[in-house]
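User: hey, got a sec? need Myo-inositol degradation transcriptional regulator folded
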Amino acid sequence: MDRSSPVPLYYQLAQQLEAAIEQGGLAPGSLLGNEIELAARLGLSRPTVRQAIQSLVDKGLLVRRRGVGTQVVHSQVRRPLELSSLYDDLETAGQRPATRLLSRTVEPASAQVAAALGVPEGAEVVHIERLRLAHGEPVAHLRNDLPAGLLDLDGDVLAETGLYRLMRTAGITLHSARQTIGARAATPEEAELLGEPTGAPLLTMERTTFDDTGRAVEFGSHLYRASRYSFDFQLLARP
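Assistant: Yep! Here you go:
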């Protein structure tokens, strides 16, 4: 703690605890101990520690449980808006990503998928559905369609790494993407899959990704838990 800083001590403590949660130093389920113990250990006043903890409770990172104490719930995934895969972003953030492969099929392209990939409607595409987890908790339901023959999508490999990493390994150079972000309420089926109550807010994302030749190589339609996930934007003023 920097006591000479104009930044309040409670805020400094809250930032340090939040960083430890995001980086996996404080795993979900970890107990912080009571306020008196923390205050004594850190050389801070009890009101300072209480205020820091409350700020993280308000953010949904900590929860107070009677008879248990203050417990880490989870960290929220903050994802930058750039052409990267969720798997790689989670791995970089120390979130211990894992994947549950729900399905992998070859099926005729719907009108939406065909328009996104630039193939005739009804043409064969590879459709995969996955559940992405961080620290063992569901974060996102991922649905992706790819042109048939683009990649050898072995089920075991799909469960071990991200789709973009597989593309790069296969020699595909990703160049750009067109992306739309929205939000809606979870259906009962989606809520059960993602561990949320029915009607909980979900972030939606549709993305068409292109390689360096301008070919569409992937169309993704994804759902993210708003309680666990957010996008980071950097906005620049026009000159």
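Quick note: The chain has eight helices and ten strands. Let me know if you need anything else on Myo-inositol degradation transcriptional regulator.
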